[in-house]
Specification:
It is a single chain. The chain is of the alpha+beta class. The protein has a single domain, classed as Cytochrome p450 (Orthogonal Bundle), CATH 1.10.630.10. Helices cover about 50% and strands about 10% of the residues. The strands form four sheets. The protein has a five-stranded mixed beta sheet with strand order 3-4-10-7-5. Helix 7 runs antiparallel to helix 8.
């Protein structure tokens, strides 16, 4: 038990911690395989707990009520460009996700303007087109009726990447999707590697050196496109890069870092979530058929145009609930860090300045006080909620975060997941290779172990 201490905030307690031996074991596991470590920490200590060794102090926050307090705490109380944030090497030091204060607000505001509702709705036909392209390529195999399973993880990853490229560059770079995907993949693999391999160095021939080379190549591609936008703007209302150039708020270096951030962070996480969605929906009795029926009613027959109208999304009610349930159980990130720059009080506990706060959508999405039978996949749990139940569910459903640091691409990600899942259900028969959903892997992005091997045939 911890004893109460008095601060200017009143009576609060220090963070509860596991025993020294358990602390060291969980800390090591958290940095390799975070989800079991988070589960054990919550079971033995609670949903708000401390970990750490020497100068590294961690506070894990997974309680939904405490998360509400965290998200309502002024952003000035935290820092995102902290010494433990290795993302800056990949996305750039001027990326908004490693920025703080006025720089973050200016960079985010410029990018936020590029994600308006009109542009999002305009991307609806693009998403459906890429879903159809994916289905056509799958069913054009030499023997599409073969029982040999196809790993759908890289397939849907390519589809999501193509959507991102078309959204950010128009159709100018869509033929280079494979090249861009390879360069982003090496960066993702690097971020998933052990921390010791990510120590800064200038040695050639290493994974860090290859990521550095990839980033230079991406910068050159983006610089060429920026110059083209200035020299001969297309006037395409859906082109994000052109909107950033025309806006004129950001420097070219800042534009470069935001584009790399938005594509790199956005498509990888969305593709992983779609992989989970395919497992969850095909292993839940009758759900794939229900999704197909809804898609038939809303999207019309394949080949018919899908209008850039938000009403399309609002009518895919079951698919939207399904995506919400997938993201509840399998959020793209198990935790996200921010460093406290002042002492803060969260969940009745004092978190000292300099502590790295790991807030966890994974724990909040499995909180048994909020979600009855939390490990059961059930899209209909969002139906007919009382006002109190709806408020509790809303507080605990945080796969994209909350407040001014919420994932800026959350609306695009949800739209992609809903439309892609609906179209795939409408056009494909999928037979999972296992009756159960696989375990998760991934330190940065939560992915299903072994991919998504399934028998695939045209409807």
């Amino acid at each position: 038990m911890t004893s109460a201490v008095t601060t200017e905030h009143g009576d609060v307690t220090p963070l509860p911690r596991p025993s020294a031996r358990t602390n060291l074991r969980l800390l090591r596991r958290l940095l390799r395989d975070p989800r079991p470590a988070l589960d054990e920490l919550t079971a033995t200590v609670g949903p708000v707990a401390g970990l750490g060794l020497g100068p590294m102090r961690l506070a894990v926050v997974g309680d939904p009520v405490a998360l509400g307090e965290l998200f309502s705490t002024p952003t000035e109380s935290f820092r995102w460009g902290h010494r433990f944030n290795t993302l800056g090497f990949v996305v750039g030091d001027e990326s908004m996700i490693v920025s703080d204060g006025p720089d973050h607000r200016r960079r985010r505001a410029s990018v936020q303007a590029a994600f308006g509702r009109r542009r999002l709705d305009g991307w609806i036909p693009i998403v459906v087109e890429e879903a159809d392209r994916t289905v056509d390529e799958l069913t054009a195999r030499p023997d599409p009726t073969t029982a040999t399973p196809v790993d759908l993880a890289p397939v849907v990853r390519t589809a999501v990447l193509r959507i991102a490229i078309r959204a950010f560059f128009g159709d100018r770079l869509v033929d280079r999707a494979d090249e861009l995907g390879d360069r982003f993949q090496r960066a993702q693999d690097y971020l998933e590697s052990p921390a010791l391999r990510q120590l800064p160095h200038r040695l050639p021939g290493t994974s860090r050196a290859r990521v550095r080379d990839d980033r230079r190549a991406l910068d050159a591609i983006i610089d060429t496109e920026v110059a083209a936008c200035r020299r001969s703007p297309s006037g395409d209302p859906l082109d994000v890069l052109e909107s950033l150039v025309v806006d004129g708020t950001l420097t070219d270096d800042e534009i470069r870092d935001q584009v790399v951030t938005l594509i790199g962070a956005g498509y990888d996480t969305t593709a992983a979530s779609l992989a989970w969605a395919l497992w969850c929906t095909t292993t839940t009795d009758g759900l794939w058929g229900r999704l197909r029926q809804e898609a038939d009613e809303v999207l019309g027959p394949p080949g018919s145009p899908v209008p850039p109208d938000h009403d399309v999304l609002t009518r895919l009610e079951l698919t939207d609930r399904t995506v919400r349930e997938v993201l509840r159980l399998h959020p793209a990130g198990s935790f996200a860090p921010r460093e406290a720059v002042v002492d803060v009080e969260i969940g009745g506990h004092r978190i000292r300045r300099g502590t790295l706060v790991l807030w966890s959508p994974y724990l909040a999405g499995r909180d048994p006080r909020t979600w009855p039978d939390p490990l059961r996949f059930d899209p209909d749990r969002f139906v007919d909620l009382t006002d109190e139940q709806r408020a509790r569910a809303e507080a605990a459903w945080v796969p994209f975060g909350r407040g001014p640091r919420r994932c800026i691409g959350f609306a695009l990600a949800q739209m992609e997941l809903v439309l892609l899942l609906a179209r795939l259900a409408q056009r494909l028969d999928l037979i999972p290779t296992s009756a159960s959903v696989p375990p998760a892997i991934g330190m940065v992005v939560n992915r299903p172990l072994g991919g998504v091997p399934m028998g695939v045939t045209a409807r």
